[in-house]
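Chorismate dehydratase, Chitinophaga ginsengisoli. Tokens?
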Amino acid sequence: MERKVKVAAVSYLNTRPLLYGFRDHPVMKMLELSVDYPAKIAQQLIDGEVDVALVPVAIIPKLKEYHIISDYCIGAEGPVASVCLFSDVPLNEIKRIYLDYQSRTSVALLKVLVREHWKLDAELIETTGDYQDKIKGTDAGLVIGDRALAQRHVSPFIYDLAEHWMRFTSLPFVFAAWISNKPLPVEFIQEFSNANSIGIHNIPAVVAENAYPLYDLTTYYTQNISYPLTPSKRQGMQRFLSYLV
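Tokens:
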């Protein structure tokens, strides 16, 4: 390969099993790795600043060309725990919802559920920074990632988006996938997917080096997040993308 493949990943706890196996792996000789939050690396992939990124699948329609290059993803086949609508009141009493600026897919999923499943008449408010302190009264908030695991200790009402998607469609959900904006060599793709698999098969080792007192990471990595990109997950992803057209 003439140059190293530029790869961007998310800096959340949920990516640690996927990234664990990259250390000392032969694929590292083929790539440059950077980390940031989902919406940021999504824009980098759209703009061509990186070649591959673990991105929210909602950006797929914005890409001129896309290839899913790994057998692993950030998915869920039930409650995901870290992508939730948090509220002080039940769903039917919510008047406004603050949207997490860090992930396009979670916001898009929330909009689908609000419109198609819950049928709520709530005002949706974009954010650009911290907003969790505004989640009170009839104002709810969509919070994702590590901050969502913390918010679980604060809000009395928690609506898990993956769980409600499953109730709505009977399909699993894919939040993020490894997507490239150009064709890549088969050798790279094989090595890349192999590196992903190492942490997935060594969850105790991943948990051991990521101390996190707010939520049990063994539960999170083995019961909440579902990493293999299965045919049913691909089906769920296509169903979700059909709502974005």
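Residues 11 and 182 are 23 Å apart (CA to CA).
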